[in-house]
């Protein structure tokens, strides 16, 4: 895998990133460390985490994923220098009071969260520090519409950038990024950074997969023209695009035991639990099989080969899953197959937006 540059930064990473939100919930620490070992062994030099992980978010597991990664760094001297490490500061808590007091995300909140992440991760610097979701009230995590009446923003983007700039100046953060962001948000962060000499966002981490392609509805142009890279998360649509739910026909409690979406109600209430999302996934999965591919191979290859995507974030629960996802690298999708994929999208659009 050739390295790719993230935005205008000097970060050069593999086009596959190891996502870690299962560490500390579905994945215990020994297994997580085995996954990290194997990922590095196979050449993946980019890992992504967040202060609020593990998922689904609970008070008991808040910060657990970063702690597990920090313990792995401590056990493996030299590993930290081989990796680009990304983590995230949570946006406004909105139902998660264990994240922080109050409903906003102030400059002091950003600094305090960064310091806590550095401690848990047992490192001196975060290579890419991202805002997990906007401080503004924007459509995200399955919410489709912007509603001005719900706007509760209290911390201007300029103030957020100044706080992040202070962390960069202090040497605690190298570059900054966004997540679950809108075209307006990306433009405003870049505009204010250039106007005031503050750090420029290098990346945006948004959902992108066969059944959720809203990135292509304008955000891709924004990122292309501004030189901001896309980190695509949920390429397998929380497991829907692996085919594991096709037989049961449900993502509810009767779905396969141990599957993340069938276990956690909070996840089912978001975009992945919609009947329309499952039905769409089943159509894509059937298409993959018609072309001699597994559903996961086609879904991953779709992200791996799209011009919009700089690096695809893969989340796994075992070393075997990691190997399968990495083995899909190099899979090509024919023009005919891509045309059939787009034909399905034209009919059903983005049911898991």
The percentage helix is 25-40%
Strand order of the largest sheet: 3-4-5-6-7-8-9-10
Distance between the termini: 30 Å
Unreliable stretches covering 5 or more consecutive residues? none
CATH superfamily: NADP-dependent oxidoreductase domain
By secondary-structure content and strand pairing, the structural class works out as: alpha/beta
Organism: Variovorax ginsengisoli
InterPro entries: AKR (IPR020471), AKR_Detox_Biosynth (IPR050523), NAD(P)_OxRdtase_dom_sf (IPR036812), NADP_OxRdtase_dom (IPR023210)
Keywords: Oxidoreductase
Domain NADP-dependent oxidoreductase: 15-344
Describe the protein.
The model has no long low-confidence stretch (mean pLDDT 94). This protein has helices at 29-41, 64-75, 107-121, 157-169, 183-196, 219-226, 260-263, 265-268, 275-290, 295-305, 319-327, 335-348; strands spanning 4-5, 12-13, 16-19, 46-48, 84-89, 126-131, 173-179, 201-207, 229-233, 309-315. It is an alpha/beta fold and 353 residues long. The longest helix has 16 residues, at 275-290. The strands form 2 sheets. The chain has an 8-stranded parallel barrel with strand order 3-4-5-6-7-8-9-10, surrounded by 6 helices. It is globular. 38% of the residues lie in helices and 14% in strands. It contains 12 helices and 10 strands. α2 (64-75) crosses α3. α1 (29-41) links the parallel β3 (16-19) and β4. It has a single domain (4-237, 257-266, 299-330), classed as NADP-dependent oxidoreductase domain (TIM Barrel, Alpha-Beta Barrel).
